[in-house]
Design brief:
Blueprint (H helix, E strand, L loop, with lengths): L1 H11 L11 H18 L5 H15 L3 H17 L4 H10 L2 H16 L6 H13 L4 H14 L1
Length: 151
Amino acid sequence: MLKTFKQFVKEHFTDSNALTKPNTHDIALAAATLMFEVIKSDSDIHLFENQQMAEQLRKQFDLSHEEIAELVALAENASDASISLQGFTRQLCDSWDNSQRCELVEDLWLIALADGKIDAHERHIIRKIAALLYLTDRQIALAKEAAKSRS
């Protein structure tokens, strides 16, 4: 799996792959990148947030510790290199149903809550991501409440 993630970085920017359907690795990277966007949104990266991100990736994609570490590194690079969240959210919209996208937003809230508070920047980026995932205000609020009850 690690080779596949490394290959993704190489292949991600070639025109010949622009129209291919996202695979599991593409989806994992898209979700991880969105998670990292929440972590870095308040300019204060906490260990608790990184641990929460790793836990959600492990649960969602059944990854080993090594695979998670590689995925997180790739997500950080993808986040730094991207100018828009749309490419990541488009992959998820094309591959996941509404309930899976709601679960991701719940995970985003969990990550934001990991340090004990939700910063205004975290709230803004989660709402932006949720809108790009075509979720309603009600779904966003329900995901937030579910995350609060889990944290």
